[in-house]
Amino acid sequence: MSRTKTLIMGAAGRDFHNFNTFYRDNDQYDIIAFTATQIPDIEDRIYPSELAGSLYPNGIPIYDESELLSLISKHNIEEVVFSYSDLSHVDVMHKGAIVNAAGADFKMMGMRRTAVKSTKPVIGICAIRTGCGKSQTTRRVAEILKGAGKKVA
Fold first, then answer.
1. Which residues have CB under 8 Å from 16's CB, separation 6+?
2. pLDDT digit of tens for each residue in the chain (153 aa)?
3. Do 54 and 103 fall into the same domain?
4. Is 106 found in the same domain as 34?
């Protein structure tokens, strides 16, 4: 059976997480590339083979998202996985329409396939966009927990 040619759109966060939790050792998929946006100077790099696993001995190339359509065409991409945040519903659906018009499926992954299981209690600090104060909130919560004698990873 041939592997599904897949491209993951991201911003050096959720995209790598989705890859590592679902695609890394999954021989049903062939991750052709990542595309990146929002993070300066990440394009034209390689997701390292040491992290990519045995299916990707040369690593996985990272391209600027502006190359999305040419990558879909050049590599006959069958599926594009949307894996970043900070976009409005309209912008996400616009990207989906572009991908679909180029002939590929557009997919977003849910928690069932990508959540990391924990045997310890977990506190999640979330927000609707970049710049809401997640880092500051995380530092304060860690401070409070340490003050209460808890071990913080």
1. 10, 34, 47, 51
2. 799 999 999 988 889 999 999 999 999 999 999 998 877 677 679 999 999 999 999 999 999 999 999 999 999 999 999 998 778 899 999 999 999 999 999 999 998 999 999 998 899 898 877 778 889 999 999 999 999 999 998
3. yes
4. yes
Residue 71 and residue 40 in contact, taking contact as beta carbons nearer than 8 Å: no
CATH number reported for the structural domain that contains residue 39 in this entry: 3.40.50.720
CB-CB contact of 30 with 5 (8 Å): yes
Sign of the torsion angle spanned by Cα atoms 134, 117, 22, 81: negative
Determine how many CB atoms are found less than 10 A away from the CB of residue 61.
Answer: 16
Do residues 53 and 104 share a domain? yes
The model carries a pTM of: 0.84
Q: CA-to-CA distance for 79 and 100, rounded, in angstroms?
A: 9
Query: Does residue 84 share a domain with residue 67?
Result: yes
Handedness of CA 64, 65, 68, 69 (dihedral sign): negative
Asked if 102 and 128 sit in the same domain, the reply is: no
